């Protein structure tokens, strides 16, 4: 891959407000990604799970029905319930790469917005690390906020977080 100068490909930030505490919103994001992660974003055959290990240096990976696991990245920041940062090891042809130096970052920031509500912001940062495919990745991610991934995430939060008593 040919490097793209840092900052030449802008970050993509999208956000959604959910009816949940920051702890609940963070937990749905980190513990239930199989329920909201786009079904077509997959490296394994017949995906059965997506795991984000809850520790700095932990793996972020998916597992197929045959037991095959493929890493999507590494946990580079775990600050429950405020912030989660993962490397995103996407390579040419939407195939995995196995070097975090070639991976962009997925930054998740959870900010309270009121009693029982918070904003969950998902930023794809440092896309320049993807080299010559960085502009194409940016174009694929760019679009109206919140986008289908965060819309699906919000639906899972609505199903999984009990409603508050008025």
Would you kindly provide a written description of the structure presented here, covering whatever features stand out?
With 166 residues, the protein is an alpha+beta fold. The protein is built from 4 helices and 9 strands; from the N terminus they run E-H-H-E-E-E-E-E-E-E-E-H-H. Strands 1-9-8-5-4-3-2 form a 7-stranded antiparallel β-sheet, with helices on one face. The protein has a two-stranded antiparallel sheet with strand order 6-7. A hairpin with a 6-residue loop joins strand 2 (47-52) and strand 3. The longest helix is centred in the C-terminal third of the chain and has 14 residues, at 147-160. It is globular.
Secondary-structure map:
Elements: E1 12-18, H1 22-31, H2 33-36, E2 47-52, E3 59-64, E4 69-79, E5 83-88, E6 90-91, E7 95-96, E8 104-114, E9 117-125, H3 134-141, H4 147-160
Antiparallel strand pairs: 1-9, 2-3, 3-4, 4-5, 5-8, 6-7, 8-9
Helix pairs in contact: 1-4
Order of helices and strands: EHHEEEEEEEEHH
For the record, the CATH architecture stands as 2-Layer Sandwich
Radius of gyration: 16 Å
Helix fraction?
10-25%
CATH class: Alpha Beta
On the 0-100 scale, what is the average pLDDT?
Answer: 92
Question: Structurally, how many domains make up the residues?
Answer: 1
Based on the structure, what is the oligomeric state of the protein chains? single chain
CATH fold descriptor: Alpha-D-Glucose-1,6-Bisphosphate, Chain A, domain 4
Number of helices: 4
